[in-house]
Amino acid sequence: QTVERSAILRDLEIRDVRDRTRKVAPLVPADDAYVIDSSDKTAAQVAVDVRELCRATGLA
Fold first, then answer.
1. pTM of the full predicted structure?
2. How far apart are CA 35 and CA 58, in angstroms?
């Protein structure tokens, strides 16, 4: 079975909107969440960022 890329992207967007807007446990970051963009980082770089964040916020 062949599925077009556009159909997959559409389905993902529909799912994401549904998940973000549901009343119970919406899939959104908490108001006080820290967000680390790991898009262009290795796991080791993300770990360093997490350690630095913990130290900076007094969690370590």
1. 0.61
2. 17
Specify burial of residue 49 (Cβ count, 10 A radius: 0-12, 13-18, 19+). middle
Cα separation, 14 vs 49, whole angstroms? 32
CA 50 to chain centre: 15
Residue 41 confidence (pLDDT): 98
Single-letter code of the amino acid located at 9: L
Write the DSSP symbol of residue 34: -
Q: What is the pLDDT of residues 36-53, one digit of tens each?
A: 999 999 999 999 999 999
CA angle centred on 42, ends 8 and 55, rounded to 5°? 120
